[in-house]
Design goal:
Length: 327
């Protein structure tokens, strides 16, 4: 494994190896597997769990993480190849990437879409260019997908449900006053389908995920003899695991209409629609009593904090696999 940039770039067997390693790190958190190793994390967007968990992952295994914020703690970056740099950016991503590779053992990038043109932004050019220009491993800390979050989600599912194959996974849209990235939902659907879960994706009309992610998830389910369903009603019935996430409408991409979004305020996970036997989770941060009620998120079946903790363990596994000492 050279990079960790998208769930779909890996086989199920590779992901299972990472999950086994994450399990061992959860049992034994400290070690020297990353002694004298340096991760350089580039944050173009805010972070709480991602930054903290990567800092701790490196520290607890004997290495260290340096975080930079282009335009704040470092120069603003130009990302277009061949650009005439007569705007605000002082440095090109190509130069920054090549220099940082001289300093660190791996790079990590967090860079959300700009919500201007989905057909352009879905190309994930910043991440892909960083991979192209880097001679060190690159980790995706959320761009148009969020593979670290998905891996932590799957570790949490396995801890509670055992073998996920055949279990019902419901990915439900939930209301948010702003259009949010589809990254978490994209990667959640991808990994759940790869592990053979029966999938239902529930969202209002006009809020379907990108067709490419839907197609790949459907194909994964077909290969695993699992069911795949899309619905425009909030159907959580018979779920084993309910995963709530807000995301912006791709139909309104670059032309957000809050009036349309506000029509769907009833899309909330609450005590009435949440199956009693099901587990609930969310990637966090979450707007309480808008996405999910206090009764659900604070219930014994809520796994939001367990999933957040598992970010630490799966990221140790990723880092150990990419840059750790070979045993």
């Amino acid at each position: 494994m050279k990079h960790f940039t998208a769930i779909e770039n890996h086989t199920k067997q590779e992901l299972e190896k990472l999950l086994e390693l994450a399990k061992s790190f959860k049992a034994k958190p400290f070690g020297s597997q990353l002694k004298q190793k340096t991760l350089i994390s580039i944050f173009m967007n805010p972070s709480t769990r991602t930054k903290t968990s990567f800092d701790l992952a490196m520290h607890q295994l004997g290495g260290h993480n340096i975080s930079i914020e282009p335009g704040k703690s470092s120069w603003g970056l130009e990302i277009e190849e061949g650009a005439i740099m007569d705007k605000d950016a002082e440095e090109h991503l190509k130069d920054a990437t090549k220099v940082l590779c001289k300093y660190g053992d791996a790079l990590a990038l967090r860079c959300f879409p700009k919500f201007k043109d989905w057909n352009e932004e879905k190309k994930d050019k910043i991440l892909k260019n960083m991979v192209k220009w880097s001679d060190k491993p690159v980790i995706n800390m959320e761009t148009i997908s969020h593979p670290c979050q998905a891996l932590a989600m799957m570790q949490t599912i396995i801890e509670k449900l055992g073998d996920p194959k055949g279990k019902k996974f419901v990915l439900t849209w939930a209301y948010h006053p702003k259009p949010l990235n589809t990254a978490v939902a994209n990667s959640a659907a991808m990994i759940a389908s790869m592990f053979g879960m029966d999938i239902t994706i529930a969202n209002p009309e006009g809020y379907d995920l990108d067709p490419d992610y839907i197609k790949q998830s459907k194909n994964n389910c077909k290969k695993n003899n699992a069911n795949f369903k899309q619905t425009h009603t909030q159907d959580l019935k018979d779920a084993d695991f309910v995963y709530a996430k807000s995301w912006g409408s791709l139909e309104q991409y670059g032309n957000y209409n809050k009036t349309i979004q506000d029509k769907h305020k009833n899309w909330i996970v609450n005590k009435e629609n949440m199956p009693k036997q099901a587990y609930f989770s969310h990637c966090l941060p979450v707007r309480r009593n808008m996405i999910v009620t206090d009764q659900v998120i604070d219930s014994k079946n809520s796994l939001v904090y367990e999933e957040a903790e598992n970010r630490l363990h799966v990221q140790k596994a990723i880092l150990k696999t990419l840059i750790g000492e070979k045993e």
